[in-house]
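=== Structure Prediction Worksheet ===
Name of assembly: unnamed complex
Input type: mixed (protein and possibly other molecules)
Chain count: two
Listed entries:
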Amino acid sequence: DGGITQSPKYLFRKEGQNVTLSCEQNLNHDAMYWYRQDPGQGLRLIYYSQIVNDFQKGDIAEGYSVSREKKESFPLTVTSAQKNPTAFYLCASNSGQGNYEQYFGPGTRLTVT
Amino acid sequence: GQNIDQPTEMTATEGAIVQINCTYQTSGFNGLFWYQQHAGEAPTFLSYNVLDGLEEKGRFSSFLSRSKGYSYLLLKELQMKDSASYLCAVPGGPWDQAGTALIFGKGTTLSVSS
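=== Predicted Assembly ===
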């Protein structure tokens, strides 16, 4: 089955630790995206990548880092510099090139205490 | 810049019809999406409107007026399972030169009661 996987579903970390969230897709999509969602809020874009070895900052990139070494994978690292890291993180992808519909992974709920 | 507004909450009863409105301001326009999101889950695609008018898909319909910067999602014959957040989104942002990322509204939480 084609789709996007994120792991783990729930993640707990202590304050001051970096943590990496996984996102893998087998849809052969060129573009991948990371969004953050807080309670009662819409999705806000953290980073996106339209092609391997290239990525761009979104609206709220501070305190986050990404890499895109493979087409299938777009991991997100939440660094200790992120002031309020507790949130629901969603990864998405699409084929790009004028195709705007995004396909979402199941999400990772990160809790930092 | 980009701005999307939608009501925060709505309530309705089973079997009823509900209309969720969305107004947007964009520097360019490449269509408008509606997604459904149940609590703790990923958004799922409902509709994509590029041209003015109403598009019907089963119990759900979506309307777009580009001149008014306005869209609505119409849900008919409401069921309990329709209780969810409904997100309005448009492609593009000030940081998105290719215009492929989506900007989302804050979502409308719909509660359906029996």
